[in-house]
Hints:
This protein is α+β, with helices and mostly antiparallel strands. It folds into two domains: 3-47 and 169-224, no CATH class; 72-164 and 227-237, no CATH class. The protein has six helices and eight strands, in the order ααβββββαβββααα. The strands form two sheets. Strands 1, 2, 4 and 8 form a four-stranded antiparallel beta sheet that branches. It has a four-stranded mixed beta sheet with strand order 3-7-6-5. It is elongated.
Amino acid sequence: MTGRELIAYMRESILDDNEAPYLWSDVEILRFLNYAEVQACRRSHLIIDATTPTDYGTAATASTAGTRALCYLVTTQDRAVYNLSPKILAIRRCQLSSMTYPLKGPMSYEDLDELSTGWIGTSGTIGTSGTGGDPWCFLNEPNDTITFVQAPGTAGTARLVVSRLPLMPFTLQTQPEIPERYHEQICDWAAHLAFKKPDTETVNLNLSKYYEDRFTSNFGPLPDARSEKMHKTIAMQGRMRMREFGS
């Protein structure tokens, strides 16, 4: 559904706002719908991407202008830490072009500390206990970075599979990036915001809470900072086998 179609659905089926002058403008409702798409992605990781090389500058601000890597990363010899796009919510897989299998990860600091207290160094390498210049795992910490352990011994590329936020807000003519089966469901969050509009003809806190609860039922609760950090590593816990470096 396009933005225009979603607005029409909301006016007819949720807001009862079909006749001009409207209580909510198209601009307002479209903004609420875009907020809703971002919320759905943060809660349920709906956009999985393995092909988009960069964010094309869509996450740029005045202080961080330019593109950032999404699914394609150029690696440098002996460099372990690389900046990624803030559009990335979590890295699900990483494979270097020089290797035939994906790296383990994303790992946590605690996982690596169990294996070796000397895993981190000034270049991100792990010294003599490493595997001769080939990374074997990666971290997605701190935010918006990837850290290889150990640093690549040669220059090359890395392919990432990530869950991410939408690259661009959708418009009246375009569709949300999330799968179409979720388009009507994001209207619940838009309705939650619409019924909080501080005007006697629009504010309805009971309806706002009702649609907030419906949205949470479909997409889950909004994760706090700790939960988002756990999401980066929890998927690996069941399939990781701890080992000593070099074994």
